[in-house]
Amino acid sequence: MTNGRESEKSRSSSRQSAAEDRVSAPEAMRSAIEQLSQLLGRAPESVSELKPTDEGWEAQVEVMELERIPQTTSVMAAYRVALDPAGNLLAYERGRRYTRAQVDRGTR
Q: What proportion of the chain, given as a percentage, has pLDDT over 90?
């Protein structure tokens, strides 16, 4: 039977090991862009959000879906991308679509 301290050390050690296996934020951004590009056949334009999660990384990637003239009328889409700690794409989902000239209004 193990005591509470040994169990706590084991949990702490596994959390530290998981953190060491996680790719860096710049690597996660590059990974999200590269893998989403392969799946969609379009090059993402930017990563507007990136945050670590318990499962790895979560990013929001902006992609031009329909190019129009003038460019301000091109149709953009925001994709939510889930990556594992090593930067491998687990899932993606298209969120909102908008024109390039559209500006988000603050929630305040």
A: 72
pLDDT band, residue 18 (cuts 50/70/90): low
Q: Considering the entire predicted model, what is its pTM?
A: 0.76
Answer yes or no: are the C-beta atoms of 98 and 79 closer than 8 Å.
no
Question: How far apart (Å, rounded) are the C-alpha atoms in residues 41 and 97?
Answer: 17
SS3 95: strand
Q: Which stretches within the chain are classed as H helix?
A: 4-21, 25-40
- Is residue 65 a contact partner of residue 91, using CB atoms and an 8 Å limit? no
> What CATH number was assigned to the domain covering residues 23-99?
3.30.505
Average pLDDT over residues 69-76: 93
Q: What does the angle CA 60 – CA 29 – CA 44 come to, to the nearest 5 degrees?
A: 60
* Domain ranges (residues) in the chain: 23-99
